[in-house]
Structure formats: C-alpha cells, structure tokens
Amino acid sequence: MRLLVRDRILGIGDDYWIEDDRGNKVFLVDGKAMRLRDTFELKDAEGRVLIDIRQKMFALRDTMVIERGGEPLATVRRKRLSLLRNHYRVSLADGGTELDVSGRILDREFAVEYDGELLAVISRRMLSLRDTYGVDIVRDDADPALLIAVAVCVIHLAEKEREG
C-alpha cells in the first residue's frame, strides 16, 4: 500500500490530507492549535478520529504518545546514542513490542522495522511530485494508521530538535 503525503513544515494547527496512490483522500492529519502541548488527530476520510497524538508533557526527552480510543497505543522517543542518523524507538502499549525508526528523518528518507523486518518505507526518491513523500507499507497485516502516526511523530520530533 502506498500513501502520498504533501510535505509541510509541521507546526501547531497544520492540517493536511494523506492520499492513496490513486488520489483518494485516506487520512487527515489535524493539528490542534492553542494547546499547551503539541497535539494531532489522525482522522479517516469521513472525519472519524482514528488516533490521537500528543506530546508528553513531563518527559526527560521529547516524547510523543499515540492513543486509540483513549487508550495508549505507543510511545515514540529518540533513541539514546544515535549519533550518525536519526533513530527513534516506538514502544507499543503491550509492553513487549518495539519498532525501530531510522534514517534521514528531515529528508523524508527512513524506515520503520519490527525485529529486523521492514514494515514501512518513507521516501521521496521514487516520486515525481514536488514536496511529496510516499509511505510504502510493506506488510499486508500492518496497521496503516499506526504507521502514519509514527511517521508524523518522528518528523515532528526531528523538526523540533532541529529548531531547538
């Protein structure tokens, strides 16, 4: 499954659509302005909230929390000692599952893996559309909404780190 994201500099209040490779609107990333912490909602094409994404307020490192239906789904934070390239760890709420996100986040060239197996590739390379990157979900049983939420989180965290 390939999804296309029109690249924007994410900020508070930014809303943008994620489309499939046929141009159909699939997800809306709805940035919530005027909040104490950075907050996004991932909605389906009918406007139903699928996932809430929030910055964790009192964390030692910048951390984003992904929730579904008010229940924690995952926590995203920069991996310690990642000197050569951006590397993030996604801890799922089940307590035992971790996803690794690594690559050039700000260039939109990175991968999401579970236990060494590729789940999704985020890339600009194969697209001719300017200011667009693709999210190629490799596994059929992967959760597209969760993988989009992970991409939103790591891009947001990397951009905040660059600014800060």
TrEMBL record:
<dbReference type="InterPro" id="IPR025659">
    <property type="entry name" value="Tubby-like_C"/>
</dbReference>
<comment type="similarity">
    <text>Belongs to the LOR family.</text>
</comment>
<dbReference type="Pfam" id="PF04525">
    <property type="entry name" value="LOR"/>
</dbReference>
<dbReference type="InterPro" id="IPR007612">
    <property type="entry name" value="LOR"/>
</dbReference>
<dbReference type="InterPro" id="IPR038595">
    <property type="entry name" value="LOR_sf"/>
</dbReference>
<protein>
    <submittedName>
        <fullName>LURP-one-related/scramblase family protein</fullName>
    </submittedName>
</protein>
